[in-house]
Amino acid sequence: KLGSLVDPLFLVVAALFNSLAPILIRNTQDEENEYTYNRACFFFFAEVIKLAIAAVFCVLLKINQDPEAEKMIVSSDLFKRYLGLGFCFFAQNNLSLFSLKHFSTSGYMLMMNSRIVLIAVLSITVLGKRLNGVEWSAVLLITVGSVQHNVSRDSNANLRVPFEGLLVMLSCAGAAAIGNVYTQLVMQKSDQPIMFQNLQLYLAGVGFNGINWLLTVLVWKTEDEWLGKIDLSVVIAICFFAVYGLSISFVLKRFGALTRTLLGAVAIVLTGIWDYFIGTTMDIIDVCTYATIIIAVYLYSEMGPKINPPKS
Fold first, then answer.
1. Which of 17, 62, 283, 290 is the most exposed place for a label (fewest CB within 10 A)?
2. How far apart are CA 202 and CA 82, in angstroms?
């Protein structure tokens, strides 16, 4: 069992990673918020790194004859579920690259937490749960906060971002919500070692991202080059997302999806702080939006029914 101080420190680091993720993506864009590299290869390489790390851990379990190694049994039915889960994360990751062309880092983090609305709906329809009054209040607050953020400050009350960007952002949040609920159905109910679960998940991720990479160059021809201009900032971002993905898998397995959602609220604050230091201005409406969504995430995370996932 982890020490009493290790768990809080791990969650703090995970929150920092969560807040830095969109910032590192934005750092790979040019002055016009475009990507000079082939976006399809970005998460492919990140998934390859995660797959390699998970494979090493699984091999070590076998070599050391760890009792957990006996649970590393491949099931075709379970692997199909990992394929579904891998597709959700594949969609979320790739849609996030497009979303960050239109949203600021803090705006992206705010909108990603709108996934609570879909999580609430899926919790009722898929997991068969009932939401209490506090949770419904959180859903209402998150909806108000998301709308409030996306209405511009001019007299015509137009959208801050193009409708296309908003639609992609909502699709990204939807994929994240489905992934959260699907994780609950697949990973948390399995007693297999977490790195063996990750091995199957990352294998699916490599497959989906690899196919997407091939299609963008050979079929859809949306990219002219296989790699494009990959500089140090892109390499750092790829390595970061590999470590970030591993940390989130541990959070979901050890602490549960509700803790993962609460980390999102902490990340909103941290991202706002990062934006402030790099010169992004915020008005009173932005501050109210932050407060509204943070309260909503806290209510949904802390006041809802608790889930005790199996310890890894």
1. 283
2. 9
Give me 295's structure tokens: 């309260």
Please say whether the beta carbons of 62 and 69 come within 8 A.
yes
CA angle, residues 161, 164, 169, in degrees to nearest 5: 75
The residue ranking higher by pLDDT, 14 or 209, is 209
Q: What pLDDT, on the 0 to 100 scale, is given for residue 108?
A: 84
Q: Which of 78, 71, 312, 110 is nearest to 182 (CA)?
A: 78
Mapped onto helix, strand or coil, the DSSP state of residue 151 is strand
Most confident of 1-10, 169-178, 286-295: 169-178
Rounded CA-CA distance 297/261 in Å is 7
Task: Assign 220 to helix, strand or coil.
Answer: coil
Q: Is 128 left (phi over 0), alpha (psi -120 to 50) or beta?
A: left
pTM score of the predicted model: 0.81
Cα dist from 87 to 103, 177, 178, 207, whole Å: 24, 13, 10, 10
Q: Compute the half-sphere exposure of residue 104: CA atoms within 13 Å on the CB side of its CA.
A: 19
∠ CA 152-155-158, nearest 5°, is 40
Looking at residue 164, its amino acid is E
CA nearest neighbour of 103 among 197, 170, 6:
170
Q: Enumerate residues 6+ apart whose C-beta is below 8 A from 235.
A: none
pLDDT band at 130 (very low <50, low <70, confident <90, very high): confident
CA dist list (Å): 78 to 81, 200, 215, 256:
5, 9, 27, 20
Please, what is the average pLDDT of the chain? 80
Residues in the chain: 312
Residue 52 pLDDT level (bands cut at 50, 70, 90) = very high
Cβ neighbors of 9 (< 8 A, separation 6 or more) are none
Lowest mean pLDDT among 27-36, 132-141, 189-198: 132-141
